[in-house]
Amino acid sequence: MKDPLVALRTSLAEQLAALRGVAPDQLPPALLDISVRRVGAAYYVCPSSWEQLRHEEAGAGRPVPYWARPWPSGVGLAGALHDDPPAPGLRVLELGCGLALPSVVAARAGARVLATDGSTDAVAFAAHVLAINEVLGDVAHVDWAEHGDALVARGPFDLVLAADVLYTKANVDAALELFPRLVAPGGVLRIADPNRAGAARFLAELDAETEPGPDVSLHTVRFGGKPAGHT
Questions:
Q1: Is the pTM of this model over 0.90?
Q2: What residues make up the domain containing 218?
Q3: pLDDT for res 227
């Protein structure tokens, strides 16, 4: 019987190579040295050594692969959705999904999920993370800070999710302009943030409700009253 991890690695190699426009043997070795892990109720597949992948990508002049590990904000947002899941059938958009743990939890609750990221590598891994959790969801390569109109055209969404995306002034400015356009009337924006100072202006301008935490705080912005499908 074929090792499931080998089959997973083969599938990832084919998709990653196609998205990068290279042959599979030109991919960084650390990108395909993968493992399957669990956090909370969700499984995820990721490169086994983030530091080695970062080293190999730097040597090739490529960006730091921030998407390739589960950061506290993403884990915290996934946990919040597990405790307060969206209703079945709601349209959910995750921005900068990385390994897409919040999308997995939302899809498991029966929501119609679209997970997006500006990295093609992240999109390939996110698709496989959804698959290994046996949930349905769409993935798309979209950098929300640059191509927000494409997301608006796919919306509006009942629930928009984002974890640790307000780390630069440019991102805050872009988010203030874009995020309200993505949410349907009566919809909700949920953001997890590691208490970055730069997020304060965004949260104040959109009148967010905050659940503070020592490492990660959860913020909710409601558009037009009670959110659809939530208790």
A1: yes
A2: 72-222
A3: 45
